[in-house]
Structures are given as structure tokens and as C-alpha cells.
């Protein structure tokens, strides 16, 4: 009986060792996948990809300006502001004829194209909203005329990287699920072979034992 139990325990220990080895291998593969994802993200890009991302950034800034100004024109926040559709004919005509203190949007919170004095972010967004192609073209012209070789043509393109990263992320998720299963199995098997431990003595029990020593 004793030998049979010992054999079972040895078998369990062997199985635990195999599972731990599998866990170590999958963990190494997971870390490798994560490292490759990080490497691909940290690589610079070609000039063509930079140009495309620059245009996308300009469009995003323009969209933010459109959204912000659209809300501001019709959402007054104080008694000093008015929605654009609530400005009186008199004030509109004063501004239109150049006799008002400000221009036609001066009474609104938006004050479109006039609220950029102390806000460079709003100014940047307004320019991206007005002349997106001109901004993009001027920046790319500066790059072309600088005399610097951009390089990075031997690196994978942004689109290629996104495809690779998506595959790696799928594999990483699969590996993490497998690791979770292996860790649960290791925990279960460890509970079988681990020696039973007596609960710790309370302060009262320790005091009683001390009196008999």
C-alpha cells in the first residue's frame, strides 16, 4: 500500500514537472511576442507613411475644431454669451457693416477665428480646419528641401506592422489563456502532493504549552 501511494505521488510530481516545463516554454513565447510587438511599435516610419500620418493628424485636428466650434456656437455658458441663432438683427448688421465692436460672432462663446490669441491649440486646429492641404504640403516641402535623407525605407510599412501586430496579439491572448490553464493545473497538483500542514497555534495554546516546558 505504501509503495502504491509513493508511486502515485511520484507520478503526480512527474506530471507537475512536465506542466511546469510547458508553462515556462509558453511564458517565454508570450514574452517574445510582447517584445516583438513593442519593437515594431517603436520603429520609425518611412517618409510616405509619415506623410500619410501627418495628413491624418491634420484631419483629426480639423475635426476637433469643427466639433468644438459647432457646440460653442449654439451652447452659451453665461449671460455674456448668445447662441449664434439668437443674435439680434441690429447687432448682426452692425458687425456686417463694420460699425460693431467686434465681428459677427463676437457675442458667441465660439467667436470663430477670433478666439486664438492666447490659445495656440485652437489656432492650430483652426488652421488645420481652413487649409489642411496647404499645411500638409508646406511641411512635406520643408522635409524635401532640408537636404536630409529620411531613410527607413528598409523597414516594414505601417500597414504591414499593423497586420503583424494583430497576429502577435492574437497569439499572445491564446498563450495567456493556455498559461492560465497550466497555472490552475499546477496549483491543483501541488495541493495533492504538498504535505498537510497543521493550523498555527493560538496565543492561548502557546501559553499553555509553555507552562509544561
Overview of the structural elements:
Keywords: Coiled coil. The protein is mainly α and 213 residues long. It has two domains: 1-43 and 156-193; 46-154, no CATH class. It is built from seven helices and no strands. The protein has helices at residues 2-42, 47-73, 89-96, 120-130, 132-145, 158-193, 203-211. It is elongated and about 105 Å long. It starts with a helix and ends with a helix.
What are the main properties of this structure?
coiled coil; 2 domains
Given as residue ranges, the uncertain stretches (5+ residues, pLDDT < 50) are none
The helix content, as a percent range, equals 55-70%
> Main sheet, how many strands, which sense, barrel?
none
Order of helices and strands: HHHHHHH
- Derived structural class: mainly alpha
Number of domains: 2
What is the percentage of strand-forming residues? under 5%
Q: What is the mean predicted local confidence, pLDDT?
A: 83
Shape: elongated
Rg, Cα atoms, Å: 34 Å
Count of DSSP H/I helices? 7
Cα end-to-end separation: 38 Å
Tell how many strands the DSSP assignment holds: 0
Keywords: Coiled coil
Coiled coil: 16-43, 158-192
Amino acid at each position: 500500500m505504501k509503495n502504491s501511494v509513493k508511486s502515485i505521488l511520484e507520478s503526480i510530481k512527474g506530471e507537475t514537472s512536465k506542466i511546469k516545463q510547458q508553462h515556462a516554454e509558453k511564458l517565454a513565447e508570450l514574452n517574445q511576442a510582447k517584445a516583438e510587438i513593442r519593437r515594431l511599435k517603436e520603429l520609425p516610419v518611412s517618409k510616405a507613411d509619415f506623410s500619410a500620418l501627418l495628413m491624418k493628424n491634420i484631419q483629426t485636428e480639423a475635426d476637433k475644431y469643427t466639433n468644438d466650434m459647432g457646440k460653442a456656437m449654439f451652447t452659451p455658458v453665461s449671460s455674456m454669451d448668445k447662441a449664434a441663432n439668437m443674435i439680434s438683427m441690429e447687432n448682426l448688421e452692425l458687425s456686417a457693416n463694420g460699425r460693431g465692436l467686434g465681428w459677427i460672432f463676437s457675442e458667441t462663446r465660439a467667436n470663430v477665428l477670433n478666439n486664438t490669441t492666447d490659445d495656440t491649440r485652437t489656432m492650430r486646429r483652426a488652421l488645420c480646419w481652413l487649409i489642411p492641404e496647404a499645411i500638409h504640403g508646406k511641411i512635406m516641402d520643408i522635409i524635401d528641401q532640408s537636404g536630409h535623407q529620411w531613410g527607413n525605407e528598409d523597414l516594414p510599412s505601417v500597414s504591414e506592422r499593423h497586420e503583424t501586430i494583430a497576429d502577435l496579439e492574437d497569439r499572445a491572448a491564446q498563450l495567456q489563456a493556455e498559461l492560465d490553464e497550466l497555472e490552475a493545473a499546477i496549483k491543483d497538483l501541488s495541493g495533492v502532493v504538498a504535505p498537510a500542514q497543521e493550523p498555527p497555534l493560538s496565543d492561548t495554546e502557546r501559553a499553555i504549552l509553555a507552562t509544561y516546558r
